[in-house]
Amino acid sequence: MSLKSPATPAPPTSSPPTPAPATPPATRRRGAELERALLDAAWAELEDKGYDGLTYEGVAERAATSRAVVYRRWPTKPELTRAAIAHGGAAEEYEPIDTGSLRGDLIELLTWANNTRVRIGFIASTRLAGYFAETGTALGDLRTAFVGSREPRTEPIYRNAAARGEIDLDHLTPRIKTVAFDLVRAELLMTLKPLPAETIESIVDEVAVPLLTRQPAQVTREDVRRR
Fold this sequence. Notes:
Blueprint: H1 31-53, H2 56-63, H3 67-73, H4 77-90, H5 102-116, H6 118-126, H7 129-135, H8 139-147, H9 154-163, H10 174-191, H11 197-213, H12 221-226
């Protein structure tokens, strides 16, 4: 009787699974990174729920942190709201404009504002009534927080136009400097929709450029005597 050799085990058909790499520990956010996340969350809460629905818990949950972290930085809801609005203004993406003409620059600038400020106008008009009532302020006061300390975007445009000889900076009053933006802002707040291109061109051609380029009236002695 012959003896059989023991069967050789079959080789494995596949390699053993490779262990998953360990998940790196979460990096704790600090300083500017943490504050940016908090203000992004507060801005989103304002947009979704308005001032009356804004809570520290909601901001903390959206930012994946604790209520105490938010509260330590902004102890009151109005302070948190103003900080969120200022953050929203600082986050606007803007490239300096120089088309080679005052008219072209203003149309470009107002078109940019038209495309970026509708969302801001919606929040201000429909989401912040409670804030204005609680603080006794108005939209103009909040605009200061939104704009911050930066130079008005029209100022470089006016300096370039003066260098080209299109306008005289000494003849520009504060009202004339802001009239184009004032009209666009009024339209946005009334409709909560972007303005048609022809409306922007009408504001520039019929109001802004004529006022910016006008020469002050020359008053003679004869005119004074007639008065």
